[in-house]
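May I ask you to comment on the folded chain given beneath this request?
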Amino acid sequence: MFRDDTFMTQLKYWRSYKPEEELYVRLKENPVWPFKSIGDGYFYVSFRSDRVEYGIAVIALTLFFLVITMVFLGPFSMAFAAFSTSFIIGCWTLHGKFAWRELIVSRRGKGKYIVRVFQNEEILFQSEIRNVYIRLIRKIDALGDPYFSLILGGYEIDDHRITRMTKAEGPLRIMGMRIASRVGINFFDWKDESEEHLIWHFKTYSKIRYKTDAQIMFQKSSTNLHSIVSQAQPELEEDTDRKKVKVVKTVKINN
């Protein structure tokens, strides 16, 4: 859950757009969403673990059914013990996850990222920029149909959903690549071995230098970066219309 993405904002997009359309409109408003650019090669995003929502839901439902149970069965029933256990689980889910955190990505030098507490700016940890990424994930429903979503993740960072689940694999892949390339972090396809990975930072090389070392290295890499970018770039129309758009018609689906 991102700090600037309130429940009412989510509800507005959920009612008006499909997941791929929602991301397209958001990127029209902010080309590096969910990040914000603060200039000079720095980007940041404030987030909180999705476990907070689940924990609050568990506690609220537990208290609701606990009151009903105590009214009809009394305070010393077996159900009371079960609800007490559920309440403890809900509190445990919230432990250490309730505070808002900031992820700050720096492309300066060799690149790094910092995670700190939003309220007091206490730095929790920092790591190399290669350890933070955007990834396209796939899940299969009960009928065997694949659904896809984009997440923001990394070392010591919970996976945070950027989009809802959708069958539109191609548009999500192209827009995910665009976000990653603009921020300067790695993009990974849902397949572990894929030519669709967009690797900017390797273990021994974590600095973007266009037209020099990076270009030579990418040509030798199994990831054909330049062909992927050249194919992806023309696919999104550059109109400024903020109205509802059919992104499936706007973006070529690469299945």
The first strand starts at residue 36 and ends at 39.
